[in-house]
Fold this protein.
Amino acid sequence: MLEVEGLEASYGSFRVLSGVTLEVRPGEIVALLGPNGAGKTTLIRCIAGLLRPRAGAMRWEGRPLGQAEAHTVVERGVAVVPEGRRLFGSMSVEENLALGAFAPRARRGEASRLEGVYAIFPVLRERRRQLVRALSGGQQQMVAIGRALMADPRLLVLDEPSLGLAPRLVESIFGLLREINRGGVSILLVEQNVHAALALAHRGYILEAGRVAAEGQGSVLLNDAHVRRAYLGPLAR
Amino acid sequence: MTAFVQQMVLGLLIGGLYGLAAAGLSLVFGVLKVLNVAHGQLIMLGGYGAFWLGALAGFDPFAALTLVIPGALAFGAVLYWTLFAWVVRASEETRVKNSLLIGFGLALALDALAVRLWTADERSITTSYAGAVVSVGGIAIPLVRLASLVLAGALIGGVHLLLARTRWGRAIRATAEDWEAALLTGIDVRRAYLLAFAIGTALAGAAGTLVSVGYSVSPSIGLEWTLKALVVVVLAGLGSMPGTFVGGLVLGLAEAAAAWGFGGPYREMVGLVLFFVVLVARPQGLFAR
Amino acid sequence: MTRPRGLALGVVVVAALAAVPRVARTDAELNFLFLVLLSTTLAQSWNIVAGYAGQVNLGHAAFFGLGALTTRTLWIGGTPVLLAMGAGALVATAFALLIGVVAFRLRGAYFAIGTLALGEILRITVGNVLAEISTLPAATIASYRLADRYYLALALAVATLAVVGALGRSRAGLGMQAIREDEEAAEASGVNALGLKLLALALSTALAGLAGGLFAYYHISYYPSHPFGPHWTFDALLITYVGGVGTLHGPVLGAIFYVLLKEYLAVRWVDFHLLIFGALFIGIVLLLPGGLVEAAARLRALAGRRAP
């Protein structure tokens, strides 16, 4: 449903992506792995419409994506949980969630979807009047995922949701992601936490220096030389 | 003692207009990260708008608000599309600097235009009730100015509710806080910019109308009102409409106290000195949250 | 233009300007050229701190005003005018360094609005303390020679251009331009940002103080707060941007264009030139950030391509 083909992108004269090709199929969880600076976040910014690619193509449900304005990407069913969560800290939990349903399409059924989010994250219902910046990191991550779900996405893109969270919390968030996926939402997951991500994902891609260095099923990738080189250092070879 | 209280009451009354003048500037700065130094000129135009409606069509100045506000909304939209839409494309630092320059050019052009259209004379709207005064314990309260204070408070309260309760109000606040995150939630950020700029201009227009009733307008008041609004924004910080209103009242009172203590000519100084001190004391923290 | 050719052209222009008082039939021509030269000096002085070092100083009139006030007071009191002007420059620079240490804690637009407030504080104070109009004594008026003022203005403009020209090629000038582009990066590569900004401010305000002194020497009667008025800053800003900010030729071209338009239009419409200049200025900021200098360079490049 999401196809990225030969994507190139750069900041100024500094090229970050040089021909990335990948795909997310309906119902899949796809992990996108790679060391810092490999271009993972840049790829997400391209998908979200925040950065115009220099070359290549992106298609979403058969229609081109790359030239769309950022705010229309949500309307078409792609919701992004950005790196560092980027919540509206001076607003309440409920206001943040309501903003998630800002896109016109997402306004239908907003109330029932809010109930759904509260069912997944019951603690958010208790905290719904609190300002987001007063919440703990884990709760903030729940708000960030909840905000994206409020857009009624068919594809959920997450950029390092485990960043700064305790291992137990990561486990429970990843469990919830699996549940969300079973509800019919495809997921593209960018992670540093290789084991957790590959355990969750159906398939994975390794990004290195702006190119896809390896791809395959989670368990296969885990044993792949690229993964070991990227994450365990040259000595592990 | 009565003289002092009288001064302070007058200070409070004009302070409401300072708050209203600052509210628009604060909204535009907070949301667009654009510092429109022609804000005072927009206030001036609002004043002349009401003056024209009175002179040419016999409008009562308070009734003129019902036309000045929509007119200013539209004018703000046009200004945004023709000038500031270009500026907001730049990174935030260049944005503030360029907006300063654009606003400066705009201020100059509007000043010159006002001289052409209305001459350099001071104008103020006189009504049948202009001289009406209520007296409370020996303190005279001009009714027109009291009505202006109440209206200023009501308008600021209205915008506050708009921002707090409505869908687009929330979108405007989200854009102010993090425009990229706002885009990711599906908000058309440029429309939020447009709305904020138009509302800011409408607030300026309303402030100008009230200035032309209780006080006076001339083509040269622009810079003066921009400075007043800037002082209030610096005192009150960004992000809260009621806070801005209170900041305006504080400036009005401080001016009155300075005029009473050191004499009339020092009225203008107190705000500028406060402004500079606060600015230097918190150079980064001022507009950051 | 190559450097020797530019220099030769400059010498010819200055020689021609120096001959003007001998051939001019009325004072009008001299007055016009005086205004061009004064505007060039003032704009160029603003250009040092704003164009080269990137600090948009909206309180520049304060230094012009301090120079005028000091010079006028000393000169009428009997001090030779050149000495009085030197004192004016000294006072302006001392004041600038005093507030510069504080004001340079502000970055970008906050520096701009902070200095705007400072300038206004000074203008209001002077207006309050010295409310009386300042007029030259009758004896001075009787012996007033416009040509003296003109030559002084010419000398000051030439000196200013020489200073800015030398600055542009010096290490300090390069450091200032690095600060303008990216202050943090400049500091990271070893540029003493505060020191260079203070140096730019000192040079800029010394020249502005001299220009103010020239104004005090030239003008027969004015209110002491007049040279502190914000329009002096705005004139300098407009001229610099329209001509080409951060360049040596820009303020010269801008001043000629500005005074020409102002004097020509003022005959028929008061203040109309500001409407045109305001619009022009907006257009330049949005579409042609390099001003007239960039426009000329583009035209030359275009012509060069057509006729190789």
Notes: Residues 239 and 257 of chain C are 8 Å apart (CA to CA). Residues 32-228 of chain C form one domain.
